[in-house]
């Protein structure tokens, strides 16, 4: 008799707590959540209904997911995993991930069993990939050569988060995977593993992907080499940049990556390659050179860019980019060079020169311009440009 009377009472307590969870404000829900946990497994069915009810307020589902993380039950693991891969809400997905991680080995064991079922495998791998605990390494290793490229890509991406001696060789092998999605994940991960640069000869492996048939893979390889930031990585990027048959967009991506590793060798390579490259690539080189921090390198870049400004071969658009690059370098010696551009017949060049002077040192620029106006031999075009600049300032 005792059992039959306690079951209705337990269910009533669950119903009351769930109703309070749905109807309350944040503070009351926080308190009710503690009570629901104490009700034990009796509360699980109702909580499962809450997390699947998309009509409910977001916060209710968030609390339900948090509470379910206290129950190591197969149906809970499956429900949280389903929420994880079906919801578009990042916070809700993160909560489901944390709940699964809180369940721990039990959650991993349930999801690992699902890997044996081809229909459930993508679902299970996605959930395992989001848990991010070392217990997921073993089951994820088992699917790195799955026939489904989506499964392989998810496994490679997740495994890249761990420092396990078995993983690095798999990542290198995945660089040659027939699916671009898998290659992309492997490249992105290896680009963050500078600790493996020498032992795994990463530069050589990543450089081969610069010639990949998939443009996205080429771009990702350039980014990865830039993140490695080693002299060898810089040399590899510069070599591909100078090849005449390298696609223009890849050249741009390479220059952007080189902009993260502006060593003396890289700067010299960018300057040397400049004149032979397409206009869009030249402009990207100018933007990268404007980021040079080393004082001695910056001085050399200032001299080079100042010389380029006088070249008649540069297009008007490239000249505009060059003028703003000079301004970002912040060298006071550039005042004369930039003021000289006020005499340029093209209005856009003239306006960029004013903007650059303001960015470089507005007060000093105006003082210098006033001093130059006192020179009797000042060229007429420059005098007119300075007068106009004072009006437009």
CATH T-level topology of the domain at 291-393: Leucine-rich Repeat Variant
- Provide the gyration radius in Å: 31 Å
List unreliable stretches of 5+ residues.
1-5
Overall shape? elongated
Number of helices: 23
Helical content class: over 70%
Order of helices and strands: HHHHHHHHHHHHHHHHHHHHHHH
CATH class of the domain at 291-393: Mainly Alpha
Average pLDDT score = 90
Element layout with pairings:
Elements lengths: L1 H22 L2 H14 L4 H9 L5 H11 L5 H13 L3 H14 L1 H10 L6 H11 L5 H5 L7 H11 L7 H8 L5 H11 L11 H7 L6 H14 L2 H12 L5 H11 L5 H10 L5 H11 L5 H14 L7 H14 L5 H6 L6 H27 L6 H13 L1
Can you offer a commentary on this structure?
The structure is a single chain. The chain is mainly alpha-helical and 393 residues long. Among the domains are: 223-289, no CATH class; 291-393, Alpha Horseshoe (Leucine-rich Repeat Variant). Helices cover 71% and strands 0% of the residues. It is built from 23 helices and no strands. The protein has helices at 2-23, 26-39, 44-52, 58-68, 74-86, 90-103, 105-114, 121-131, 137-141, 149-159, 167-174, 180-190, 202-208, 215-228, 231-242, 248-258, 264-273, 279-289, 295-308, 316-329, 335-340, 347-373, 380-392.
Distinctive features:
single chain, 393 residues, mainly alpha, Leucine-rich Repeat Variant, 23 helices, elongated
What can be said about this structure in brief?
This protein is mainly alpha-helical. The protein is built from 23 helices and no strands. The protein is 71% helix and 0% strand.
């Amino acid at each position: 008799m005792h059992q039959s009377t306690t079951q209705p009472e337990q269910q009533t307590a669950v119903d009351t707590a769930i109703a309070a969870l749905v109807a309350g404000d944040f503070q009351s829900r926080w308190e009710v959540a503690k009570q629901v946990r104490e009700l034990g497994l009796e509360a699980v069915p109702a909580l499962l209904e809450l997390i699947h009810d998309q009509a409910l307020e977001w916060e209710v589902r968030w609390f339900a997911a948090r509470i379910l993380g206290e129950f190591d039950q197969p149906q809970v693991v499956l429900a949280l995993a389903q929420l994880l891969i079906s919801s578009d809400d990042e916070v809700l997905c993160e909560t489901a991930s944390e709940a699964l991680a809180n369940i721990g080995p039990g959650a991993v064991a349930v999801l690992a069993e699902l890997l044996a079922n081809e229909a459930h495998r993508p679902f299970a791998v996605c959930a395992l990939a989001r848990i991010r605990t070392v217990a997921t390494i073993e089951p994820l290793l088992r699917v790195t050569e799955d026939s489904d490229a989506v499964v392989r890509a998810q496994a490679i991406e997740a495994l890249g988060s761990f420092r396990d001696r078995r993983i690095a060789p798999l990542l290198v092998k995945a660089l040659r995977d027939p699916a671009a999605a898998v290659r992309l994940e492997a490249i992105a991960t290896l680009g963050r593993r500078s600790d493996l640069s020498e032992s795994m000869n990463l530069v050589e492996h990543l450089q081969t992907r610069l010639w990949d048939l998939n443009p996205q893979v080429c771009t990702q390889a350039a980014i990865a080499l830039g993140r490695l930031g080693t002299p060898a990585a810089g040399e590899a990027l510069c070599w591909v940049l100078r090849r005449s048959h390298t696609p223009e967009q890849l050249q741009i991506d390479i220059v952007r990556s080189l902009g993260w590793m502006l060593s003396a060798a890289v700067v010299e390579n960018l300057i040397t390659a400049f004149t032979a490259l397409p206009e869009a690539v030249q402009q990207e080189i100018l933007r990268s050179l404007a980021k040079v921090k080393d004082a001695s390198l910056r001085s050399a870049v200032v001299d080079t860019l100042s010389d380029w400004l006088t070249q008649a071969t540069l297009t008007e658009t490239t000249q505009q980019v060059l003028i703003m690059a000079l301004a970002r370098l912040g060298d006071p010696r550039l005042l004369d060079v930039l003021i000289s551009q006020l005499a340029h017949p093209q209005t856009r060049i003239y306006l960029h020169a004013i903007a650059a002077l303001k960015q470089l040192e507005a007060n000093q620029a105006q003082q210098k311009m006033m001093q130059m106006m006192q020179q009797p031999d000042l060229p007429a075009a420059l005098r007119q440009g300075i007068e106009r600049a004072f009006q437009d300032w």
